[in-house]
Write a structure and sequence with these properties.
- This protein is α/β, with parallel strands linked by helices and 317 residues long.
- It folds into two domains: 148 residues, 3-Layer(aba) Sandwich (Rossmann fold), CATH 3.40.50.1370; 157 residues, Aspartate/ornithine carbamoyltransferase (Rossmann fold, 3-Layer(aba) Sandwich), CATH 3.40.50.
- It is built from 13 helices and nine strands.
- The strands form two sheets. The chain has a five-stranded parallel β-sheet with strand order 7-6-5-8-9. Strands 2-1-3-4 form a four-stranded parallel β-sheet, with helices on both faces.
- The radius of gyration is 19 Å and the shape is globular.
- The structure holds phosphoric acid mono(formamide)ester (CP) and norvaline.
- Norvaline binds next to helix 7.
- Phosphoric acid mono(formamide)ester binds next to helix 3.
Length: 317
Amino acid sequence: MASAFGLASKLNSFSKNNFLSSSDLNSDQIFSLFELAKQLKSGNRRIDLGNRVLGLIFKKASTRTRVSFQVAMARLGGQTIDLNPQITQLGRGEPIKDTARVLSRYCDALAIRTFSQQELEEYADWATIPIINALTDLEHPCQALADYLTIQEKFGELKGINLSYIGDGNNVANSLMICGAILGVNVQICSPTGFEADKKIVEKAKSLSNFGSKISICNDPSEAVKESQVIYTDVWASMGQEEEQLKRKEIFEKYKVDQKLIGLADEEVIILHCLPAHRGEEITEEALESQSRNVFDQAENRLHVQQALLAVQLGGL
Ligand code: CP
Ligand code: NVA
């Protein structure tokens, strides 16, 4: 296990930094963050930040992200406050540039879940405290950290692992691609025509590729899962796309993760899902329940990796 000093020397460069995209951390920093997360998870490490406050601005629903940030701060001796736009002046149109400067005087960091990445970046431009992406339409970088920590725990290492993401080329797929490329994972995103991952993100991921990782997109799920150690899926209609749900159900039918598709993958394959899941749509009840151990380990790791991230960003090492 890495010494506290060794980890601090690698991670302190990220202290006070924003975490807006999976590309904001390099491989050394992510692997060190995973070490710290594992130390926190096992109880071998305690970090007390002493009364720090994380503000939560969530414009979309959340169970895992919100609660894991709340519990992470509590375990670090700090607390969170809900800055729900419906109860703050944000909901009445107070500009982000003013909100960000005011909240920087009260809080020590902000975790923000919103629609546009641009809005998140505007907060980062005006705030003087770290801003964390708690999900935008473009990325879900905290999720990707928990996902790769889980895969590392299951397989012992990440380099050379084949991960096939089956479904919509959305925020979760984007962060999986970028983070996977940085960590040496071969990531294949398999989506129906017209729902592929953002080309710019694919190019960005390829440009960040380390340790020979391959990033690719395709349209045939049966081909995609061959030799995969990890099959990953997410909802077909993300938050904000509810009106497309029925139409997408028809288009995505071939992209359902079921026992037949799983049977085409590596014998040791694990199934991951960021949750919440729509059983009977992107994943069958049987597929999800037969892999419940892995999926709920993955959800649990949101807590440990975000606790490590906060400890670093808030200068607790
Ligand atoms: N996976 C995830 O981000 O879940 P929540 O929407 O519940 O936060
Ligand atoms: N892609 C999903 C992820 C939810 C955690 C959404 O944005 O709704």
